[in-house]
Design a protein that fits this description.
The protein has 270 residues and is α+β, with helices and mostly antiparallel strands. It folds into two domains: 120 residues, N-terminal domain of MutM-like DNA repair proteins; 125 residues, Helicase, Ruva Protein, domain 3 (Orthogonal Bundle), CATH 1.10.8.50. Helix content is 23%, strand content 21%. The chain has five helices and ten strands. A four-stranded antiparallel β-sheet has the order 1-6-7-5, with helices on one face. Strands 2-3-4-8 form a four-stranded antiparallel β-sheet, covered by helices on one side.
Length: 270
């Protein structure tokens, strides 16, 4: 699943091509995504895209009439293509612009979404209850520590909860907990404030580094595939079950938490 750095890189990748551009047509080949693509989305035609922003894993294209909300789901991607580029099997939605460019949603598993709202998008039912952005000032040790009190869920599941903080997906949760030296099995409500302080700093560092590295992949958005994929950064534990820890001589372990694979070092993380 695309995580926050991948979504932010997608936003940055499409921004130069569609910001302040006029939408001339919206083509919906397959409306049955995670939620039905609403007919009202065609109200965007003739409108200028005034901003291209992100909230959590949603990309928001704002016009004077309303806002399109795009979610990439489990396997989706957005590509910048020239008008006239033939669609392939899983290319479900095109937004066509007057500059002869289009953005195309490819979503093989159809868990993504293209929605429309005429109200404040930050108050949309899918967005309004989201937690703070992890790179923003609202995500800090005081907030996270207080929110965790009394929680009996594991620390990994806690920081992956979008109502607690948005965008800390499986890969970055595993890596952040490793760097912070915190066991993913530790109960959120039992972790000390000092350890939360370290974890908040590391989450910000890990995500910022991934986004920065993603900047080198922006050229990919005008190629045929248009998918930057997960950034080729050094992963300490994720996907390395059975291998030697990059810090000590222990073996990286793999367990299931909330039906997601968790990777960690039992020696480095306590």
């Amino acid at each position: 699943m695309p995580e926050l750095p991948e979504v932010e890189t997608t936003r940055r990748g499409i921004l130069p091509y569609i910001d302040q551009q006029t939408v001339v047509e919206i083509i919906v080949r397959q409306p049955k995504l995670r939620w039905l693509v609403p007919d009202e989305i065609h109200d965007m035609e003739g409108e200028i895209v005034q901003s291209v922003t992100r909230r959590g894993k949603y990309i928001l294209l704002e016009t004077s009439k309303g806002t399109v909300l795009i979610h990439l789901g489990m396997s989706g991607s957005l590509r910048i293509l020239d008008v006239g580029t033939e669609p392939e099997k899983h290319d479900h939605v095109d937004i066509v612009f007057a500059n002869k460019k289009l953005i195309r949603l490819c979503d093989p598993r159809r868990f993504g979404a293209v929605l429309w709202t005429t109200k404040n998008p930050l108050k949309h039912k899918l967005i309004r209850s989201l937690g703070p952005e992890p790179l923003g000032e609202d995500f800090n040790v005081d907030y996270l520590f207080q929110f965790s009190r009394g929680r009996k869920v594991s620390i990994k599941q806690f920081i992956m909860n979008g109502h607690v903080v948005v965008g800390v997906g499986n890969i970055y949760a595993c890596e952040s907990l490793f760097k912070a030296g915190i066991s993913p099995k530790a109960l959120a409500g039992k972790v000390s404030k000092a350890r939360y302080k370290k974890l908040v700093i590391i989450i910000k560092e890990v995500l910022a580094a991934a986004i920065e590295q993603g900047g080198t992949t922006l050229k990919d958005f005008v190629r045929a595939t248009g998918k930057p994929g997960y950034f080729q950064q050094q992963l300490n534990v994720y996907g390395r079950a059975g291998e030697q820890c990059s810090v000590c001589d222990a073996t990286v372990k793999q367990i299931k938490q909330g039906q997601r694979s968790t990777f960690y070092c039992g020696k480095c993380q306590r």
